[in-house]
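Researcher: Quick sanity check before group meeting.
Model: Go ahead. Protein one:
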Amino acid sequence: MPREIIACNQELSTPNSSTGGITIYDIAERVKVSPSTVSRVLNNSRLVHSSTRERVLKAADEMGYRKRRIRRQHARTILNIALLLPFGGNNYLHLFYDAAEFIHALNSGFGDVRANIVTMVNESGVQLFDHKTLGNIDACVFGFTSPTAQLLQAIDARGIPVVLINRIDAQHNYVVSDHAAGMERLLTHLLSINPHAHPCYLGFPVIPQVSELRREGLLKAAVAHGIPVSESDTFDLESLCEITPQLIERLLNRGYDTFMCFNDVVAVYAYQCALGMGLRIPDEFSLTGFDNSPVRSLVCDPIATIDLTVAELGYLAGRWLRDTIIDKSESALQLHVPGDLIPGVTVGRPQREPRKDRT
């Protein structure tokens, strides 16, 4: 096995290598696989079948493929990391998490390796490889946003490691909050206080993948706990403006005594709406959020939530990239990180009898 292809700790793959001229496209054509598969093999991903991995490494060795060298300054490795964040077109988007906390944690994951983190907006037409300030890119991180298939293909074709944060792609590396486990923890907490709770779920399909995982987590947890929560008890909100007194009245009249919200932003909107109606939480109904985001500070009563562990997500991504690029670790990164329960004061036993379809 030509282990030197993947063991040199000062090299990274790139399409137009100055040492030999062989590219991953050439290897892909010879082995009859996609360039992205070659990229994964050369970057030590375990997401490729062992037989394909052997064929790619053998072809690369026979063709004289070499990887480009990582930059060093005064004997110190320097990595260029492209961090792509979502466009904040919606005024509430930046309230989901603390971007500064995430960037700091990502950088800390590289330890004593210097990482130049250049932040860009993941928007249509983003020019990732024409960024003069960044130069040669050693890795890409997509924080709380998903790359287009075209952009991901371009990254893979260049043999650049990529990590998705809080988004799942079975063919790539990712680290996400364990959304399903978080909903199970919230439901367990709710039932420990109110064993006869009748919850509903307020989803937010503007972020479909995350909302779906949290919805599925609640439904699965309900089955495990033996409480009657089904698809008919989940309600998707296309806009936060849909959280109105009419909606809350309609849900209460259907007998729900707990609103389990997609995240803290939705929960805060519901809290403020109920407050304007003269309702008290949790006397009238219990309320839960998710993420432990900065928006929780906008209400006086701390909302029960699950910590998104933004700092841990960032740190784990940075540490894995360092190990992969510098130490040539062969492990894949597909982690679901459990978040801690933050009880708050918005979960309790209703002080009034449940409403019975008065509309």
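Researcher: Fine. The other one?
Model: Protein two, sequence then structure:
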Amino acid sequence: MKFLFGGLIGRLLSLAVLAVIAAGAGWYFFIREDNEAQKAAADITDEVRQAAGQTATPAATSPTGSQGSNATAPATTSAAQAEGASAYAGKSYRIIEGQSGAWYLADEKLARLPTGSTAKGTTDKIAGEFHLTEDGLDPSKATTFTVDLASITSDNSRRDERMRGALETSKYPTTTFTATAISGLPAEFGTADTILQLTGTLDLHGVQKEVTWELKVKRDGDILSVLGTTAFKYADFNITKPDIAGVVSVAEDVTLQVQLFIQEI
């Protein structure tokens, strides 16, 4: 009997080990992703122009070549280096919905393997407005944008379920950023990225916390392309990491990026 009982325990342990290995294999071959942060503001395409109510590509300001979402960043200009009054003082801009987007980048690692990967979840449900003055933001109008967290998807539904559970999207379906300060605006944006800093309050998971976005902004005609990047830890917003116990662990840090196309109101 002891021999039979010992054999049964051994078989059960073997099955448990196989289950963990199978889960790990499933993660590695079907869930694992390798993604990188976008490095430059995206080109303004004809599709973006059409969504903005335009029909033609402006010949005088169209950039040469296509950069793509993960292209190497072009030469950049610091807003602090620009001189003269900004051409954008007193103007308001609205995000072109359906063309703009937001996404997270989160590192994942299988418990029994030394290699990891970077997961990415995206949504195009983002809306908001920017209001500028000669000194920066217009204090009489809210510069803000909101992202629909419940609509974020990656390439795997199981990951999406874990992420929605961690964010509690049934209770907190959106996140909103409200800007309080922006670095000095340039006299004019060009076809190469200009780097600015945008500081404000991120309302996420019921927690409000100050964050700063690095903005890369370029112009094509009267549309601005804005790439924003910031990072935080799950714990900063009281979010439980979406780990799979004993199988997949998720890094503490999360990178958020938004690719906005904005046009003057």
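Researcher: One line on it for the slide.
Model: The helical segments are 2-31, 46-51, 157-167.
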